[in-house]
Amino acid sequence: MTARDAVSWSAPYRALPEDIFWSPVSPEPLTGAYWVDKNESLIEALQLEPWLSDDLIDAYAGSTPLAEWSPLAQVYSGHQFGQWAGQLGDGRGLYLGVSQSGEHAFEWHLKGAGQTPYSRFGDGRAVLRSSIREYLGSEYLAALGVPTTRGLCLVGSQTPVRRETMETGATLVRLCQSHLRIGHFEHFYHRQEPDHLRTMIEFAIAQLDPDLSDVADRDALFFERVLNRSARLVAEWMAIGFVHGVMNTDNTALSGETLDYGPYGFLTHYNPDFVINHTDQTGRYAYGQQPRVMQWNLACLAETLVGSVSVETLQGLLKEFPARYMQAYQHSMARRFAFAEDNPALAELLKLQQTAFAKPGTYYPESFALISGFEGTYLSHAAVDRDVLEQAKRLWEREHEPGLRGIQNQITPTWMLSHWMLDRVIQSAEDGDCAPIRRLRQGMHQGVSQQLPEAVRLNSQPPPADGGFHLSCSS
Ligand code: AMP
Ligand code: MG
Fold it and tell me: Given 253, 289, 294, 428, which is the most exposed site by the fewest CB atoms within 10 A?
């Protein structure tokens, strides 16, 4: 068998009726394309080397697509910041199809390849800055064991793209189980097109939960699956201190994968009110609001199912969300501290963790490694509450299960993906040096619990802790 035979390609979404579910789109090429990084471990794991040879760069930069691809833009709608926004859709990204390597089926999406019928006023482009943020952010979450889209490769260019300043365009190929969003269901529900909504529901079940395809009450069971996956996802975000920043329903995947990295970030000190997105003036998407927002988004999904599932059933499931979230959060924290799941001391440890890392100048993502005694170079020392940290360490020492440390070792970061680290990496890349991106990506694959000199260098000298940090949505 040749390497090419190890992978098969399909494009199931293209079988849905054109113009109702999608539009055909040819990518628009960027000029002066160069590789910023190829995700070698992922490429190797999925046996994709023949499709990522250097000579194919033009396809990834938006010239003639590879023969295996079927580029199209999907239509969807959504609620943004709590308001119905109407039709949105892939405005600067294209579905390319699905690759199957052994057990692994991944949907491909080319982001930044030009305008589509759903671009509205946008230019269809993604800038290098935000593409690097997405590429590294998603690899970091994957390394921490959080479900997410993955970046396969990142291409830079000389094409100028206007944002607050002039920047350059980039493309990112990202892979995931499915790019279907809550907004895909909302689109047909709000247009009052029940037949198309039914087609969409059947497609989603076939893609994500095929074991339910022939079950009579599959819509209710599917909703429950989405609810459980979403509870687990937001629990992982809360556990590691991740703030998505734009949890609109069009950015919420039905697969329970982290999708659409925009103005995301990680907590510095532990602060439920932490807001990363500067257009989010009411703090709707603050760190501590994320579970509640996920439940709100799921209520939007539930509404689309009232034609086939009773309101009592949907409301009953939605009411279960907080308990399922809490269970998933405790499960995640137990894994991250190598605690037995039913150990009642976990609650006390979490209180100590939050208290020790509550002051500006501490960095919550470091708390797991510091409490559990991982070797590393940490930034939290000056402001951490020493007494409380010592109490937490003693409790951890007494209560953790050595037999569970294997998993903990894989998912405990000794270095964090800070916003200033990302800024420094982006600056280097804009100055022509992409090596720091490659070294960080390789470090993530070696394991985030291992010390990484590049990360220590890039994390040193953080900006003042009370400097107030916000990111813009512009990407
Ligand atoms: P986002 O907030 O990035 O998830 O985007 C919300 C919607 O705006 C989606 O439909 C995107 O495809 C679209 N969009 C964002 N930026 C652009 C752009 N530069 N060009 C075209 N469409 C865009
Ligand atoms: Mg989006």
Answer: 428
CA distance 386 to 363: 14
Mutual angle of helices 182-190 and 290-304, in 10-degree steps = 40
CA 282 – ligand 1 centroid, Å: 22
Instruction: Please give the Cα distance from 471 to 422 (Å, whole number).
Output: 12
pLDDT number for residue 37: 98
φ, ψ dihedrals at 155, nearest 5° = -120, 130
- Cβ-contact 141, 148 below 8 angstroms: yes
DSSP structural state of residue 265: E
Report the distance separating Cα 81 and Cα 19, nearest Å: 28
How far apart, in whole angstroms, are the C-alpha atoms of residue 370 and residue 386?
A: 11
Distance CA 412, CA 143 (A): 9
C-alpha to C-alpha distance for 211 and 137, rounded to whole angstroms? 32
Residue among 72, 116, 119 whose CB has most ligand 1 atoms within 8 A, to mutate: 119
Ligand 1 neighbours by CB, cut-off 6 Å: 88-92, 118-119, 122-125, 246, 251, 260, 262
Rounded-to-integer distance, Cα 144 and Cα 236, Å: 9
Give the list of residues 6+ apart from residue 124 with CB closer than 8 angstroms, or none. Answer: 28, 91, 92, 112, 113, 114, 115, 116
Residue at token pair 């440390």: 405
pLDDT at 470: 76
Q: Which two tokens stand for residue 24?
A: 């055909």
Query: Which residues are found with C-beta within 5 Å of the ion, ligand 2?
Result: 251, 260
pLDDT, residue 466, reads 61
Q: Exposed, middle or buried: residue 165 (CB in 10 Å: 0-12, 13-18, 19+)?
A: exposed
Residue 273 to residue 266: CA distance in whole angstroms: 13
> 252 C-alpha vs ligand 2 centroid, how far in Å?
8
Mean pLDDT by 10 residues, the chain (475 residues): 89 98 98 98 97 98 97 98 98 98 95 98 98 98 98 98 97 98 98 98 98 97 98 98 98 98 97 95 97 99 98 98 98 98 97 97 97 96 94 98 97 98 98 98 97 96 76 80
Distance in angstroms (rounded) separating the CA atoms of residues 368 and 295: 27
Alpha-carbon distance of 30 to 28, in angstroms, equals 7
Which pLDDT value is given to residue 464?
83
